[in-house]
Amino acid sequence: MLDRDLSRLLGREDRHYLESIDLIAASNAPIVSVRDNRTWGVAQFRSAEGHVGHKPYAGTSIFDEVEELAVRRACAVFGAEHANVQPVSGSMANLAVYRGLMKPGDTMLSMAVASGGHLSHGHPKHIVRDLYRVVPYAVDPRTGLLPYDHLKALAEQERPRVIVAGFSAYPRTVDFARLSEIANGVGATLVADISHIAGLVAAGLHDNPCAYPGTVVTTSVEKTLRGTRGGIVLCPQPLKARVDAAIFPGLQSSIGMAGLVSLAAALQDASTPAFRAYQERVVANARLLARLLLDGGLDLVTGGTDTHLLVVDLTRTPLTGRQAEERLQDLGILSNRNMIPDDPRSPFVASGLRLGTPTITSRGFDAEDVRELGDIVISALRAKEWDASHIELLRKRAHALRIRPRPDDALADLAASAAAGR
């Protein structure tokens, strides 16, 4: 049994989260087999360092078998030649790849954070900026789309060692074939960070960067891939030694068996028809939500979405991203403020709100649910007055939406346990 303080905090977190509607694009609700560590025995606390077959601890042969299983499944799901499943996060996977492919001071191209790039791609305060020369590229401020011709010209001018293609707030499909062509043309390695779209790639709903020779792919596990926190690097066989050495001993020491078990379970799920059907619903829900918000008078970056996320452009409203996030949180709806391309309020205030549908889809939301949710979001973001009566009315609607019984809710078991404990 946990001590009283921890039990109280965990109980509060369960109630808070399970009584919320999670629209955070980087979140998800894994299925029971992925998170049910009650059945994992000693794997919950076993750890070891080193690569498969070369761990400097005694008694790690079964540990190696678990890791090998996760590696085989990752390669099968993504069609990769080699997979390293040891990174503790997608960001650590990125750092390891940079370390394996570049020397300090080398040049890398990556999308600016304001255009949808991730912090680990070269935010001014990230360690990447201390180690490498980061040249950012941006989306077209008029359309919000990737300007492939401009990126090609920039690559030819800068001659980078690495081109990073991966985005945390870009709602459209990415032309990895074109990006691979650009990288090959200047002798660079394309690093595709698919952390947000890994589930869509695994399901065959988005172009797979592993299909392009020489491309290195990184991903986190806890987003659309529907796992728990962790990272993966996928690479061609000739780069195996450099990638593996960059992870261990380059950046990390021991890894936990529990994370490998969870990852292997998630990858098994990702190979099933049910997983593809789930990803199809994720995209359908996102596109429906985007259409509803547009019809309701809100603006979206790029005018819509092809993926699991969308970004509301609030510049024609009096709200900032933070204010919009707080309004939705008043109703029990979780989201996150985000910068938008050519944000007129930056660098101090974000004018965007990022929304995503992985978690609500995992919790069984269908088109009828999304229509009600979209109307609630529109009512909250377009309300001229935000008083107690308005908040209470919308909060009741959000609560009624959340508690609708859904047989395919991935967290139904946790919700039932939390309810029983109250």
Give the gist of this structure.
The protein is α/β, with parallel strands linked by helices and 422 residues long. The chain has helices spanning 4-18, 32-35, 61-78, 90-101, 127-131, 148-158, 176-185, 198-202, 240-247, 257-270, 273-295, 321-330, 358-362, 367-382, 388-402, 412-421; strands at residues 21-22, 47-48, 82-84, 107-111, 133-137, 162-165, 189-193, 216-220, 231-235, 255-256, 299-300, 309-313, 333-334, 336-338, 352-356.
Report Rg. 22 Å
Largest sheet properties? 7 strands, mixed
What is the arithmetic mean of pLDDT?
95
Spatial gap, N to C terminus: 18 Å
| Apparent shape | globular
Structural class: alpha/beta
Percent range of helical residues = 40-55%
The fraction of residues in strands falls at 5-15%
Low-confidence runs: none
The number of strands is 15
By DSSP (H or I, 4+ residues per run), the number of helices equals: 16
What is the multimeric organization of the chains shown? single chain
Task: Record the strand order, biggest sheet.
Answer: 3-9-8-7-6-4-5
